[in-house]
Amino acid sequence: MISAVEDRYRAVVERVAAAALRSGRRPEAVTIVVAAKTFDADAVRRAVGAGAADVGENYVQEARIKARQLAPLSIRWHMIGRLQRNKVKPAVSLFHLIHSVDGIELARAVDRAGEQAATTVPCLIEVNVGAERTKVGVAPEALHEMLDAASRLSHLQVRGLMALPPPGSATESRRGFARLRALRDRLDDLRLPNVQLKELSMGMSSDFEEAIAEGATLVRIGTAIFGPRT
Fold first, then answer.
1. I want to staple 219 with a disulfide (CB 3.0 to 4.6 A). Which of 16, 65, 70, 208 is the partner?
2. Domain residues for 187?
3. Is this model's pTM higher than 0.90 or not?
4. Which residues of 136-165 are buried (b: 16+ CB within 10 A; e: fewer)?
């Protein structure tokens, strides 16, 4: 019998594809990152069995445990939560992409860990598009300076931007997504070394279709796949 996780994942795939096509985009241009915070390895295994390849975690230790449990599977792990500086070294060795570099000091810490590991670390810069006091991230007006500084780090590669829009309706979220896309489009013309603003990580279970309409290439979806967190 097909599990609810498998059914929900396939339904999300269909919704992502439909949203992409409505926007004149190819469905394969959007990657679903399964947001697995608090859900166990068996739930992730079911999502992978249904076709998922990218799994996002908010905490390094939780990701390390699941990565060991699911080692035989081919999974690209994403860090989608806030990354503490004392967790940077294990994060660099574990994650395919770090979505949440929220300032130059963290970028420098990631760069140092990349140098120690003899690797270049793919990252996204987290932007506080709503200028909310309760959220971390680079202010939109400081993003140019942040990217310029990051471009000088030889073991970090900026692949794009990430944002959590201010809470509200899907329509309000879409305005935040549009602001992030506009920032990307404007700053991509700078042609900075080690900076390629191809990726836009935005949109979750309640608003990923609006995010796709505004150009999201990575959508972070948990509840719509696993059900409500308890």
1. 208
2. 4-226
3. yes
4. ebbebeebeebbeebbebebbbbbbbbbbb
